[in-house]
Amino acid sequence: MIIADNLCKQFERTVLSEEKKGLGKKGKKTGKKETFYAVDHVSFQVPQGEILGILGPNGAGKTTLLRMLGSLMEPTEGTVSIENREGKVLTDPVDLKKSIGYLSGNTKLYHRMSPREMLYMLAEIYGIEKAEAEKRIAEISNVLDMESFLDNRIEKLSTGQTQRASIARCLIHDPDIYIFDEPTLGLDILSADAIVNFMKSQKERGKTVLYSTHYLEEAQFLCDRILMIYQGKIVKEGSPKAILEECNTENLRDAFHYVMEEVEKA
Amino acid sequence: MNVKRMGALFKREIRDIFRDKKTMIMMVLLPLVLYPLLIVGMALLSTAIMQSQEEKTYLVAFEDCAELETAMADILEDMPEEIGYTVKVVSEDSCREALEAETIDAYVTMDGKEITIHYLSAKDNSSTASYALDEAFDIYRSSLTKQQIEDAGLDAEMILHPVQIAENDLSSAEESVGSMLGTMMPFFIITMILLGAIYPAIDVTAGEKERGTLETLLTLPVTNFEMIMSKFLAVSVIAGVSALLNVISMCGAMAFLVSSSMASAADMNIVIDYTKFIPGILITILVMMVFALFVTAVCMCTCVFAKNFKDANNYATPVMFVFMFASYAPMLPDVELTAQTAAIPVVNVALLVAGLFEFNYNYALFGIVLVSNVAYSLLAIMVLGRIYNSESVLFSEGFSGVKLFDKRSDMKEKQIPGVGDCVLLMCIVLLLMLYGGTYAQLKLGFGGVAVQQAFILICPLVYAWYMKADFKKVFSIKPPHIKGVLGGICLALAGFMLALVAGALLTPVFPQSAESLKAMDEMIKGQPAWVLFLVMAAMPAIGEEFLFRGFLMGTLREKCKPWVAIVATTLIFAAYHMSLLKMFTISIIGLGLTVAAYMTGSIFVSMLMHFINNSVSVLITLYPEQVGKLFPVLMEESPGSAQIAVVTLVGVVLAVVGWVLVKGKKAV
After folding, report:
1. Do A107 and B11 touch (CB under 8 A)?
2. With an 8 Å Cβ cutoff, is A183 touching chain B?
3. Pair B572, B552: CB distance under 8 Å
4. pLDDT of residue B665
5. I need a surface site. Which of A132, A185, B313, B585 has the fewest CB within 10 A?
6. Do A124 and B5 touch (CB under 8 A)?
7. Which residues on B lie below 8 Å from A169 (Cβ)?
8. Does any domain span residue A184?
9. What domain range is B76 assigned to?
10. Do A10 and A92 belong together in one domain?
């Protein structure tokens, strides 16, 4: 189970304002720095075996939220913790990362290595014994059908092959929790389906999946629960079914529009 | 820090760099192939050109001056051997047209006494011909002069050469070669380390961002420190190796050049004993390794801000210029390695290497160069760590979010500093001492020593205040127990005695530089006794104790095992005195101080010990005769083995008694 408790992330942004002093000198615009919450006091829990979908418009704070959950970023306030299968609560970033498989559009692979070399290197970093690593690499490449290109340099792989290698990267340490940031973005139907199926299969294995997406249809049938966020705050939370009922719509797309309009009004 | 994880990352970085074509070309191909090819090729080319000139015959003509022509034809006929090429006289109807058409290479006209050589400076052949004519006319003119002097009935030889001048170079062949190498090598070495470091540095920072693998790296269970250190070490190794390769390849090419030019000038009987350069080369390699760390850290600090390779190249260019400019230092007149220049980054390495090849071995200055380079490297690594810790650099590609220093208002109350704080503080104090302290000593003389001591005291206090440290805990501020004080006194005396023995045994191995002792003596001379006790005994006792037994030991005590804390404090304390001989003796004294402070938990014990130790030294300086009468051992230039044995025995006994006393206090 992963627990987000009161998570906040503050960023600085430059706001253009016409200052009184500046106006005298040809009305020069001066930038003023202000801080804002990219993620604004967000708390939730995702139990084992659940797929949580995070929806929201661009700039809503999805990526920042997922980065904090994956310990890539340090929260300004609040904590992330993981309760593992043995019931132990982990809070140290290094320990958290060992239980998480994180995948996003920005997690590219090392071009100058082969998938096999990369997986060995990762196994070493995750502290997996060599014999065990060998076994796991064989298993993973079998499941993901990677044998044919396991020893080619990653820069030479096709998009689909690279995507499979990326999934292999998240699998090597057999994490309890997967965090995927728009994993199907820009993929063709086959590759996208492969990822969706992967998430489903992991759920069946009792793993937790958190993922953000813009594909609402995909989220509607895949997720057990959905968080809609806007300007860093959770604006709607519940199972797809409950959300549809609440918004009185037939599909998630309409529900999303409805929620956003409500928020804008408020 | 997990060594295994760091090792895995380090291996990956090295492999990645080795698989990068750009780096490999810069690192291996350039030094191993291009430089030798260039140097040897140039040599071969110039020999070929010279040979082709030798075989060539240059045509010259004389216009309307038959008498001159006959005289010159004879001279030119005899010329070839001396000047190296053949010049033939031909007759032309219109010399000017012939020259313009390049059928002849030069011609001569004569108007009364004025002889003019007409040639085309833009044509190589014509220039050479005019040069040959010039030489021939010199011979012609002297023969005329000689003739006229003899006609006047005088001794031509006496008048033309009243004295003979000969040169006798007393420099050995090694010194001449060394001085030549000394001006070139620093520039080459620094440039090569820089070139070796810059591309891998860009690759592991901006390159990683550009390829989009940085976020992948951040998902791995490694700390920022492990990440940065593995990158840093990988780049340093590459920079060091590439510098080595470059130096080897360059030396090889030079050796080829020298030996081939010697073969051609067989009559120049020069024998160079290359083994004389070995110590210099070894020290150069040591310095290069440390310097590679510094260069790497600087390059990485610069490149980490860049979004991509191109950007990083732009950032790196000014750094390259600064380094290369600084490496010219040895070529400037009157710039030498001194206590002041030894602390200036880059310049110190350039001057040190230049000096080594000129056989200037000043170990005290080497120490400063090495220690200051280590300090600069550590500072640069810490800055790098801070930059890499900042998410704005990692994610949003900007400068603005980098916070090198936390605001004091953000600090928690009652903090215990970390090992990083110690490193930073030590570097700050060291550099302040090197720059500020040396400057103060130059300006104020003896007062400068007091200023230096003040730095040592103020730095840890200000640092601790800024970070809101727990003063009582960090600086061990606690009244001592009487047993602890007694034990401390015993340990202080034991330390002094054993250090004396070590000093006596080691002096033959590491001769103290007489110069530095003399300078110290002169500074002390004429100072009243109370000033000496204040500046030389009381101030160090307070300042150095606050820094070493206070801040340093107080921090390490919390973070490390006891023996690590004690040994590290002792060694850093000794290293701070920057002298090979003192390194050993001060380690002994420092060990006593550290153990006493650690066991009693009171800084006042070690302050008292430090004061006792320094006071004894001051006493010896002030009243050498009286002290000599009371304790003849102290004043002995070279004590006998019996004296050494006695002093050692008393020292050891005192040390054991002291240890039992300070330890006993702890047990209570």
Report:
1. no
2. no
3. yes
4. 45
5. A132
6. yes
7. 216
8. yes
9. 56-159
10. yes
